[in-house]
Design a protein that fits this description.
Layout lengths: L1 H16 L1 H39 L3 E4 L9 H5 L20 H11 L2 E15 L2 E10 L1 H7 L6 E3 L11 E5 H7 L6 E6 L4 E10 L4 H6 E5 H8 L7 E6 L5 H12 L3 E3 H4 L1 H39 L1 H9 L4 H35 L2 E3 L7 E3 L6 H27 L3 H5 L4
Parallel strand pairs: 3-8, 5-7
Antiparallel strand pairs: 1-9, 1-10, 2-3, 2-6, 2-9, 4-7, 5-8, 6-7, 11-12
Length: about 425
Amino acid sequence: MSAMRLIFDIALTHVAGRGRQTLVAVIGVAVGVGFSIAMAALMQGGQDDFVRQLVDTMPHVDVTDEQRTARRQPAEDLFEAVAISGLRPRDDRRGIINPTKAVSWLEEWMPGRLAAVLNVQGVIRYSGREVGAVVIGIEPEKEMRVSPIVEDFESGSFSALAAGGNNVVIGDTMASRLGAALGDTITAISSEGRARNFKIVGLFHTGTTARDEGEGYVLLKNAQILSNRPNAINEIRIKLDDPNAAPSIAHRVEVELGYKAVAWQEANESILEALVVRNVIMYTVVAAIMLVAGFGIFNIVSTITHEKARDIAIMKSLGFSETDMRRLFVIEGLAIGIAGSLLGWTLGFAITYALSQVRFEIAATGQEMTRLPIAWSVLHYGIATGFALASAAVAGYLPARRAARVNPVDIIRGAT
């Protein structure tokens, strides 16, 4: 224990003896650690915010009346043929068959909330203007538990649909394109040519053009009348208590019901893969920054090794082993790395805090203010410090290995 303490004392004396070079090396490590922490916080914050928006703005599991593979046609059962061409499958517009049973089964075991809807493709017309839109039939109470736009209403709400009469809520961008306002009556025309008038009782703004310009919400029964599909639904939107459980829930639903059930991870698979690649790039950059800082440590430890050659020879002649010599200079490198890391924590926190205070306007609205998404995590500090200490250890070990091999007799005689 006393020998190890002596090695520590010698290492600190060596490092302190070259104050200016040591300070430059420490600052180099601190800058690397600080900027690595800030970069990780910013990139992780951006990723978390993006994923959170994905999770919040779409169903965790989306069940539709589609199937992953085409239905087997009766002709394929009747005729033994290599291939059948010219088939004209019957147009089936029933949506999800036996929707009441399907919804009841889901509510029995599914850990979350759900809403059954009917999507009707069509056109919305007002004052000679038309926009293509999806008219979505909903049950207001259930939709409010799963919809991402509940908090985005500028006026009115989903509950206003049930106030009586034929009512609709639309996006503010659609209203602007039509020249319509709250209280006006618009006409919805389905793809089958059926038309129905609806009074605007709510306007929402989500910031997503596809929604604000192309969606209108009506009562489910009104959508069924508009599309001439009584008692039909063609989508079940599910919000889970644990979004990460979506793949397993979707698989079970698809197996039991036979309809396509898509988890949010599957719907955004390519985006999530891109985020993984981005993380690899980020930590590669962090490693490169720490490698550059390691050169500064290598330089000062190498200089100390060269200048203290006679001290090394004397220490070895007094009984210090090659292992002790390697340990001595690795400790010197780590001491610089630790000092730089501690200073880097302060710098990283300061930069991250400064970034979190940045405010800017969203160009799309010209009014809404937002901040940079920042992720505060101890893990970022640990990773940056780990890279710093690893580079410091390597930078200290290379000169240490050379010093450990020195023959003390040659140095003392002046042969080297």
